[in-house]
Amino acid sequence: MQKNSYTQKRSQLEEYFDRTAVDAWAKLTSTAKVSGIRAKVRAGREEMRHLLLSYLPNDLTGHRVLDAGCGTGVLAADLAKRGAHVLAIDLSPTLVDLARERIGNDFGAGSIEFRSGDMLDPALGEFDHVVCMDSMIHYHHLDIADSMAKLADRTRANIAFTFAPNNAALSTLLTLGSLFPRSDRSPFIQPISIDSLTRTFSQHDGLADWAPVSTQKVQRAFYFSQAMRLSKKQAKQNTAR
Fold first, then answer.
1. Cβ distance 75 to 132 under 8 Å?
2. What gap in Å lies between CA 122 and CA 101, rounded to an integer?
3. C-alpha–C-alpha distance, residues 68 and 185, integer Å
């Protein structure tokens, strides 16, 4: 991994989500009235959340799932309602505290353990599935591949994640976004082509047993994100739970 690149960007993201924009993100992920732009972003995020959920089994009873970059915990709650034991982690302790307040603990057979910290920490243990919604959209494709490899080493079946698709519309929005007041800007988004990402995955030793099996873009005016599901190749799936 480009250690300095990943570590530096992670530090910037922690500063942004835990201090600069925590109130804005708390409002965006609630049902409170927001501006037209943020309403479109909210709708796009909701569509992406349902898409990532569609990549995983409907019945997750007894499965351990990592929600990497859980934010205010909405996706984690969806997973727990399917019976999963979810470890939900985010860089921002403030957002994690908000998630604990909002989400509750009534999930039947499922459960959620919220933590703040690095989603790549090996001390988090092993998982059946990993979801990573809009946590990697700020990173270079080499950092993404290294991150997925670290997660894959401790995952039995699927990794569903998102990245920023490289297209003209997103490039235009990023240019326009640079004109906004600094307080309204999110950290720089790194557009990546599907071909370059899949090629990097195919050449990464840590992902030799894994392959992309699904990908789909969600575009809602000011929200652009591409979902991808990585699964263990058939020869290895037989050992998965």
1. no
2. 27
3. 22
Share of the chain above pLDDT 90, in %: 56
Are the CB atoms for 21 and 12 separated by under 8 Å?
no
Q: Which residue has the higher pLDDT, 227 or 3?
A: 227
Output the CA angle 143-66-19, nearest 5 degrees: 65
Q: Give the global pTM.
A: 0.81
Give yes or no for residue 3 having a pLDDT over 70.
no
35-49, 65-79, 103-117: the lowest-pLDDT one: 35-49
Count Cα neighbours of 186 within 13 Å in the Cβ-side half-sphere.
17
* Contact (Cβ atoms closer than 8 angstroms) between residue 159 and residue 135: no
On the CB side of 72, CA atoms within 13 Å amount to 15
What are the tokens at 221?
A: 């005016």
DSSP β-bridge partners for residue 223 = 220
Quickly list H helices, the chain: 3-15, 22-28, 36-54, 74-81, 93-103, 141-152, 168-177, 194-202, 234-237
C-alpha 88/C-alpha 47 separation (Å) is: 20
Dihedral angle over CA of 163, 101, 85, 159, nearest 10: 0
User: According to the model, what pLDDT value does residue 85 have?
Assistant: 98
Q: What is 87-149 written as a DSSP string?
A: EEEES-HHHHHHHHHHH-S--TT-EEEEEES-TT-GGG--EEEEEE-SSSTTS-HHHHHHHHH
Q: Distance between CA atoms of 182 and 190, rounded to whole angstroms? A: 18
Structure tokens, 121 = 């920490």
